[in-house]
Design goal:
Helices cover 18% and strands 34% of the residues. By secondary structure, it is of the alpha+beta class. It has one domain: Jelly Rolls (Sandwich), CATH 2.60.120.
């Protein structure tokens, strides 16, 4: 697989090398050892979530506060979607910037979303299914929600009609409001969380 860093520091695009023949195809979707070498911190899956959406459904922008923090490995396993990551880390040189990736089940491409970076997507097909492999389990009250239609972010959803969006996302804070309220993570806190996660998974001999 090919692992390439995106314009958002710490976010990566993963493109599998597929082995195809008359029967179909085989590919490795996730290699934690290769991902760790590229990202620089370990990724240990703790929970797997699936979200199924109708065409033109818009979900996001979502992140998780630190602590507990949550990194995500996001894959479209059915249909297609427009995936967008937004840097929400105060102090990041890319704060407020975004990157768009088209994800679909045929290509098998995935996006690694580091702690502190927001994520959202627009379903481009009916019955689109996205898989989230995440580094921490769900903790009520820790989610950070940013309005995906925040005019200051001006995210290029390019939806041909009014998107289908939840009431929670429609009423979410703008980036400026979230910044003013003190709910956004600091880049230093994200790095500290990464360092703690790395120390936690090291072998006992490496910690001595």
């Amino acid at each position: 697989m090919r692992i390439e860093e995106m314009s958002i520091p710490g976010a990566f695009l993963i493109t599998p090398d597929q082995l195809s023949d008359e029967r179909g195809a085989f590919y490795e979707a996730l290699r934690c050892d290769m991902l760790e070498r590229a990202v620089g911190v370990p990724f240990q899956p703790q929970q797997i979530n699936y979200s199924v959406s109708k065409r033109h459904t818009l979900r996001g922008i979502h992140s998780v506060s630190i602590p507990p923090g949550q990194a995500k490995f996001v894959t479209c396993v059915r249909g297609a979607l427009r995936d967008i990551v937004v840097d929400l880390r105060i102090g990041s040189p890319a704060f407020g910037r975004h990157q768009v990736t088209e994800l679909d089940a045929v290509s098998g491409r995935s996006v690694y979303v580091p702690e502190g970076v927001g994520h959202g997507f627009l379903a481009l097909t009916d019955d689109a299914c996205i898989c989230y492999v995440v580094s921490s389990t769900y903790v009520p009250g820790t989610q950070i929600d940013i309005n995906p239609l925040d005019p200051d972010l001006d995210l290029p959803w390019d939806c041909p009609q009014e998107p289908l969006i939840s009431e929670k996302d429609a009423k979410a804070s703008s980036l400026a409001e979230a910044l003013a309220s003190g709910t956004l993570p600091d880049l230093h806190d994200c790095r500290t969380s990464d360092a703690a996660r790395t120390a936690l998974v090291r072998a006992p001999s490496e910690r001595q």
